[in-house]
Amino acid sequence: MASDRVPVGIHDLTFRTTSLQLTHAELARHTGVPLAKYHQGIGQKAMSIPAPDEDVITMAAHAAAAVVGRHGADRIRTLVFATETSVDQAKAGGLYVHSLLGLPPHIRVVELKQACYGATAALQFATALVHRDPDQQVLVLASDIARYDLDSPGEPTQGAAAAALLVTARPALLEIDTPSGVFTHEVMDFWRPNYRSTALVDGRASIDAYLNALTGTFGDHQARGGAPLHRIRTICYHQPFTRMAHKAHHHLLQQAGLPTVPQDIAAALAPTTTYNEVLGNSYTASLYVALAALLDGPTPLDGETVGLFSYGSGSVAEFLTATVRPGYRDHVRTGAHRAAVTDRRPISYAAYRDLHSGTLPTDGGSHATAAATPGPYRLAGVRDHRRIYEATGPVDAGPATTGRCVAAPGEGGGG
Ligand code: COA
């Protein structure tokens, strides 16, 4: 039964990334760029690099399996796969995840794209579906690999991650508030034509468009009666590079006529950037990785209002708030998140450049990929223009809070 009064929001949130990383210290040794420009100038210390048998599907399946392993899949009626790193022009990437996890057939699966904003659109669509029928759950997967040309200004802001969000009634982590503020403005600040594997970006235009969209969304949010700035405890910003969050918060405070002390801004944002500064840009997953970092942090947030600013180049943006549920700490996945970050193997600059240049064959033949990932799902190869995925090991779903706690590959139902 539909009911606007039932709280709806994020019941579970987790992310996974690739198994390899390139540190900016290693990058700086070869580019000659002062390390301080990477560490302080753009706020990045390392970036996730996919192994040859890792992609947006394997990362998303890993994150999704943890969520499904904890809660089961019986009530999931919709799976939305948000990405701008699509592996197919027609088929939704979520179908591969559906198959790898052995999810039940009575689920609608779609893919959604609008640059880094896609996951927030998915979250809002999910909350509407759950408001319509609070017995249903929606699995939102946000998975991206940020790739720019070698030796381009965007190169040090590459990265990768997949976030999985279970959207339900009476959520354990966060209730999504209304209203939200939205803003759309057509601009060519960042884009990737279908024939390219790397994005094109006008960095300065992108920063300007991002800040313009922040003004637009926040103004709309306030005009519609959204929580005033002084009631918002912390804001998670989309982080194409983590210094962007500092620029954004400075901009918002300045527009509100509030003090813009750099140390205060740094202190306010630090809990939201701990993962992204070592993962790099994960496009549409980035905001939800920032949110995971905030929830995993030491400061209790029970009952607090947090802000979320989602920006997708091109451009569409949204400012929303969420109320953190009392007791949320019993449901966060801090250990798994720290392991995802620290378990990555550092690679050399030469190995990184080799991987960056690698592409999947397009001749329609049968080609196996080298077995490299220690993760539970891998891209085994391509055959007849089809991607072949396989499950290679069990997924640790983390401590049980409700339902089952360990999912074997291909065993997603039940709970
Ligand atoms: N020590 C400390 N800081 C330094 C430095 C040094 N030695 N050298 C430069 N910096 C600072 C600069 O002052 C600048 O800071 P500011 O932005 O506060 O002025 C910052 O480092 C970046 O320097 P800049 O010369 O502007 O870098 P760049 O031309 O290499 O471009 C980006 C930086 C972020 C614009 C570029 O990496 C990019 O386009 N990234 C992609 C962004 C993206 O994907 N956007 C789309 C999604 S929103």
Quickly describe the structure:
This protein has twelve helices and 20 strands. The chain has 415 residues and is of the alpha+beta class. It has one domain (8-391): Peroxisomal Thiolase, Chain A, domain 1 (3-Layer(aba) Sandwich), CATH 3.40.47.
Can you describe what's shown?
This protein is α+β, with helices and mostly antiparallel strands. The protein has a single domain, classed as Thiolase/Chalcone synthase (Peroxisomal Thiolase, Chain A, domain 1, 3-Layer(aba) Sandwich). Helices cover 32% and strands 25% of the residues. It has twelve helices and 20 strands. A hairpin with a 3-residue loop joins strand 13 and strand 14 (316-324). Helix 6 packs across helix 7 (242-255). The longest helix has 21 residues, at 203-223. The two termini are 22 Å apart. Bound molecules: coenzyme A. Coenzyme A is lined by residues 34, 36-37, 40-42, 116, 153-154, 156-157, 190, 201, 203, 206, 210, 240-241, 281, 311, 313.
Question: What's the layout of helices and strands?
Answer:
Blueprint: E1 8-16, E2 20-23, H1 24-31, H2 35-42, E3 46-49, H3 56-71, E4 76-82, H4 94-100, E5 108-112, H5 118-132, E6 137-146, E7 159-169, E8 174-176, E9 181-184, E10 190-191, E11 200-201, H6 203-223, E12 232-237, H7 242-255, H8 262-273, H9 276-279, H10 286-296, E13 305-312, E14 316-324, H11 334-342, E15 345-346, H12 349-357, E16 367-368, E17 377-383, E18 386-391, E19 395-396, E20 406-407
Parallel strand pairs: 2-15, 4-5, 4-6, 12-13
Antiparallel strand pairs: 1-7, 1-8, 2-3, 6-7, 8-14, 9-14, 10-11, 13-14, 16-17, 17-18, 19-20
Helix pairs in contact: 3-4, 6-7, 7-8
The chain binds coenzyme A.
